[in-house]
Structure prediction request, 609 residues.
Amino acid sequence: MCGIVGYVGTNQATPFLIEGLTKLEYRGYDSAGIAVFDGEKIIVEKSVGRLASLKEKIAGHVPQGLIGIGHTRWATHGRPSDLNAHPHTDCSGDFVVVHNGIIENYLSLKEKLIKKGHVFKSETDTEVIAHLLEELYKGDFEAAVREVLKRIDGSYSLVFMSRNDPDKLICTKQDNPLVIGLGDGENFIASDIPAIITRTRRTYILNDGEVAVVKKDSVWITDREGIPVTKKIFEVNWNAEAAEKGGYEHFMLKEIHEQPKAVRNTMSPRIAKDGASIVMSELKWTREYLDSFEKIFIVACGTAYHAGLVGKYYIEKLTRIPVEVDIASEFRYRSPIINDRTLMMVVSQSGETSDTLAALKESKRLGARTLAITNVVGSSIAREADQVIYTWAGPEIAVASTKAYTTQLITMFMLAVYMAGIKETLAPERTRELIACLREIPAQISEALEDVEPIKTFAKEYGFNEDVFFIGRSLDYDVAMEGALKLKEISYIHAESYAAGELKHGTLALIVEGIPVIALATQKSVYEKTLSNIKEVKARDAIVIGIAAQDDNELEKYVDHVIKVPQTDELLIPILAVIPLQLLAYYAAITRGCDVDKPRNLAKSVTVE
Ligand code: F6R
Prediction:
């Protein structure tokens, strides 16, 4: 996720560009830049760090001009730096582009362009677009942009500016948002409405594949082939604060709803076109490399630790390599057995959690080879680890982690399939089957998100209970842990997760009449066993809400309510089963009047031990 803006009109462009980017900083904030045409040439100013650094950099020599574009970055390809910040230019400096998204085929395009003599300045995927435009430009800016679009694969929203046509900006989108604000003698472009809401409320919301030529007094929209599109003006009637949250009441709810897109971003660049394998171009592991490990450690905190537990299951099941999972704050103090035959994986959304970072450093000191799974490019953990896999979930603002968890699960799953491919521990047909299921996940998350009314009702009905239990076996137990953590941290309800089979060894004493028990029963391999445990709590008059797969017609006979999630492979169902639990936590917190995005005593990033 990044934020992009554009301006063309009769006023100075820079003030709007900076104002718009300020409103979009929630979309990314590791570097920022603007490009303005000053009547002769395009001036580009960029700076690593938050927007404040860019403002400081241009203070005293603010670029002057009536047309410009800007960008606030959330790095995906290439660490945060001045050079990797957008806008990106071609070799001549005549074309500039800002981009939000991922160009999946950038490496092959880059190779071809380098062979043709293009010189690249950054490590980004975006820069290929500027050079491609230069390569394809034959005197018609718009035609060249259309040619570029034919050659790039991936997700994007893009704004182009050219020194040869300084009266227009061209913008387009595929799977990422873009809105055009209609002013009086001026027009605006932005990733999101908050950037333009103080300037105009009259907008066009672009659809995938539409291309808009935006001048100061006209907006001409066509489809990718150039056929004109008639669009309705969308009048924005939200206030600025609601607009920043995309119309949602809280960032947490917005991020819950961003999951289909976030997991698509995580997975789609890493699935081979023929659907037969997972491609981890960031790793390039070999059989020899994998065979050199006796053991893998996964170390993390909180929600990331819960993702690690699922990761252990995936890796052990699919590759038969032993995996140990540990809480980062415990790991260092128990003399872990680590050596040069250990692969240490740390999982961290922020990449800054100090316990996780310390565990990573300790394992390096002991000789382990290290891999980070993180969401933040250039974070301390990303820099410290030997290798990194980015989850590409976009910034997570709410303290309670949601899209980070599901994208970590997707990453772990893909990593396990990738490793199994190298070790030849997974049959090709099974690999295809799993990848086919994986591809369905974004749409299935959307489906699970639609089933919200019963969850709101449960939250109202049980939201004032002081104790809730979450039970499950196998992968269901791992998800139960995450469900309980979500409920605790934002609604302050005492929630305990238990391995369903372990209840009878003590905890069953706490199960009394009316206690809500959320029972996950999505794992067919342990289904009958879980059912017995559900009967045990039902016999003590607990109120049981079951979470089951769509094809389950059995569970409803034994529980008070059932929430069904779409059918998928047993391995992938945790990614769907967690959705109702996230929603339940959210609506329980709302019922209790809690500050969802800023729960008491908690911080988004824990940089103290
Ligand atoms: C819970 C939550 C925390 C984090 C934990 C680790 O919703 O967000 O438990 O998962 O603090 O943070 P990262 O992943 O940034 O290392």
